[in-house]
Amino acid sequence: MGENDAAIRARVCRDAAWLGIKLDETANQQRGPRISPAGATPSVWVIPTDEEAMIARHTLRVVRGHSAIN
């Protein structure tokens, strides 16, 4: 969530602070990949995704008549 938006990542981390999540603001602005301070537990990472490719794969399965979920 928020792979390309530092403000969204910051908000999610702030709202999840009750879980012990801490944010390294500098790393967040640089898109990580790790955006929590070194040694922090839990660690928080920016994971690249390709949602469009996943949607296309699932759509192709549906069009071909197969289940979109494995």
Give an overview of the whole structure.
With 70 residues, the protein is mostly helical. It is built from three helices and no strands. It has helices at 6-15, 25-29, 51-63.
Write the layout of secondary structure elements.
Layout: H1 6-15, H2 25-29, H3 51-63
Q: Indicate the overall shape.
A: elongated
- Termini distance? 23 Å
How big a fraction of the residues is strand?
Answer: under 5%
Number of helices: 3
State the secondary-structure class: mainly alpha
Structural Rg: 16 Å
Low-pLDDT runs: none
Q: Provide the succession of SSEs.
A: HHH
The total beta strand count reads 0
- Outline the biggest β-sheet: none
List keywords for this structure.
about 70 residues, mainly alpha, about 40% helix
